[in-house]
Amino acid sequence: MSKVKELNIVVVGIGGVGSALVPKLCRYCQHIKPQVPVNMVLIDGDSYEQNNTNRQSFHRFGNKAEVTVEALAPLFDRIQFSAIAEFLKPDNIDFIIDEDSIVFLCVDNNTSRKMVDDFARKLKNIVVVCGGNDMTDGNVQIYIRRKGKDITASLSDIHPEIASPQGKAPYQMDCEELAMASSPQLFFANDLVSALMCLVFYQIVEAKDFLDKPRFGELYFDMLIGRVEPVVRNPVVKVAQVDRKIREKGKSKPAKTKKGR
Amino acid sequence: MARRYSEQELLGKTKLGLREVCQEIGLEFNNGMSIEELVKAILKRQGGAQNAAPDKNDADKNDDADDEGGSVIVTCGASSQVLEVAGKSIAYVRMEYAPIFNIGRESKAMLNGAEEGDESHILEDGDNLEFVKKSGDKA
What we know:
By secondary structure, chain A is an alpha/beta fold. Chain A is 37% helix and 22% strand. Mean pLDDT of chain A is 90; it is low at 252-261.
């Protein structure tokens, strides 16, 4: 039995992982009980092309978000779809990602991951599920904020490569750079990332306390050794915060002494 | 001079433990060998002391080792193992186990869930050490 009253899902990036993820999410949401309103936003500025056929299913060439919504909307009538044919960027993120969203981040660059991570820090209630893979291994990281507090560490708290990203986001690239950015991948790795993201989604929707007390904050997989490893990611206490607490504690003590005198 | 191990002691070790012994006594470690084969090779290198009972000095050393010893859960990406590395530094674990765990040079170390910048920190029994593997680049 679902514990949620409404689902606001945003899928950023409809590439190898995103296009494997969205149909799975849709099938689950279509049959979720009790029925809840499901809004699903798909965003990607890229287009399906001939060279995507090794890892992605599509019925025609065209913008990935629009073509995917066109294919899935007739099959899943309980889901309210929106397709945004743009890359996520600083001047559109605030109207795409909102409070109480579940964001599935399926992008292939750390600049976009950082942008979403930074934006999520400003919101009170949000879940970011970020997946990525190399050829045969990868990870899914979960960033949960509830009532303005971090429940898990943010993406960049744990990963320095996200905190200080190298390279450009797709919205910063020209056509030639976008074409060059593509590199060989294995569909099975993309599919495994998407399956682990679904595992997280299932916990969010069905498990009573997952959002308050998640049993893991990151999942790593390695196809070659046949393992999935869950790792706990407690929120990081910043040194500045600790210093402030110590200072505050220090300040309160003399006041008490004064009062006592 | 390298310590002498008894057969029983060696048979109680994991392959990783035997690898450490091999390094200690200057024997080339072959991952294709079974534990029994490795034990035989180590005993042979030690001078055929198959049933060697440790002398008093060795026993004292063992006591010391027991005092310092203990298990640490070491994780990097999807690889995770319990290793007998309590008493060793984080830098030692990074160096020794980099090929097995595929630990990247830039992987930061997290000890019991918190970032540990001082890699000379000595690990204790029951610690949980993670070398954070970088996120997958593609999607």
